[in-house]
Amino acid sequence: DKMKYCISYNDCVAVNCKCSCSGCGGFSYDDVVNKKYAEVWYYQQKCIPAQTCPEVCCPPRTIACEDNICIVKEIS
């Protein structure tokens, strides 16, 4: 999937239409894609980026690039 292709984690960005959690070292996300395709993802989902998030905590997680694919990893 070219939308998820990466060389390093810096190529990747989390995208989401709605917030389910926020803050505390974590983040809310629906998917993670190459930054170049973020606008395409939102267009395909027919939504806009979530603007405001509730003051609750997400699990600590980080964006990574493994096997040239953008992923999200939980931090334990």
3D structure, described in words:
With 76 residues, this protein is α+β, with helices and mostly antiparallel strands. The protein is 11% helix and 26% strand. The protein is built from one helix and four strands. The chain has one helix at 38-45; strands at 12-15, 31-34, 61-66, 69-74. The chain has a two-stranded antiparallel ribbon with strand order 1-2. A two-stranded antiparallel ribbon has the order 3-4.
Shape: flat
Mean pLDDT: 91
Query: Fraction of residues in helices?
Result: 10-25%
Termini separation: 28 Å
Structural class: alpha+beta
Q: Unreliable runs, pLDDT <50, ≥5 residues?
A: none
Based on DSSP secondary structure assignment, what is the total number of beta strands? 4
Strand order of the largest sheet: 1-2
Lay out the secondary structure.
Blueprint: E1 12-15, E2 31-34, H1 38-45, E3 61-66, E4 69-74
Antiparallel strand pairs: 1-2, 3-4
Task: Provide keyphrases for this structure.
single chain; about 80 residues; alpha+beta; two-stranded antiparallel ribbon; two-stranded antiparallel sheet; 1 helix
Short description:
The protein is α+β, with helices and mostly antiparallel strands. The chain is about 10% helix and about 25% strand.
